[in-house]
Amino acid sequence: MSSQKNISLLLSPFIIIGIGFLTAIFFSRFIDGWAWIPLAVVYWSSMGICIVLFKGDRPIKSWLRKSNTSKLWITISLIVGMFPLSILLMNYQLFDSALLLILWLIFAFINPWFEELYWRGVLLDGLKKDWSKWFSVVYSTLFFVLSHPFMWGVFSIASKSYHLYIYLSLAGIVWAITYFKTKSLRWVIFSHFIVDIGNLTVLTFLNIYLPPTM
After folding, report:
1. pTM of the model
2. Cβ contacts of 126 within 8 Å, gap of 6 or more
3. Alpha-carbon distance 199 to 178, whole Å?
4. pLDDT digit string, tens, across residues 25-58
5. Longest dimension (CA), the chain
6. Termini Cα distance of the chain
7. DSSP letter, residue 69
8. What are the tens digits of pLDDT across the range 113-134?
């Protein structure tokens, strides 16, 4: 990867979050929490473009290869993923329409693929070619965490919780290590899927669900 491309990769989180922030600001003026839909489309599209631009000759399926055996980190990743399931179990009654249920499932199925292929795939792998492995982990995790308050947090109260930031920091580091240990994003994507199921994403975007501390 050329030095210019390396700099572009390093700056790509700023661009993705910046575009997402402007999208959230604009649409939330007209449709409040439903701004999550255009934001999701813009966010996934911008990550998709970055994945294509920065993956080089590497096929996307190489990140989805069969995992190397690392029972410890796969187990830790799954445990971290299951933490938010308690939120679902205690608040499932908030799904008072089929539309909310469908949108929640659609988001949970799509989002982990784009986020993991970008944050733990292209970005993490690209950075560690020129920087230390731990700098790459911290850098990618930092901006992964910041994307939540600066994009979803524009209209979602729950996305501005410091408890969320702590959890996402832990999850981001665990997922990065799991990827390094298994050489695959399969288990990471699955763990992320469980998280998006458990934390009631769409309900938090619409402020139907609010954490007890807020």
Report:
1. 0.96
2. 1, 6, 9, 54
3. 21
4. 999 999 999 999 999 999 999 999 999 999 999 9
5. 52
6. 45
7. P
8. 999 999 999 999 999 988 999 9
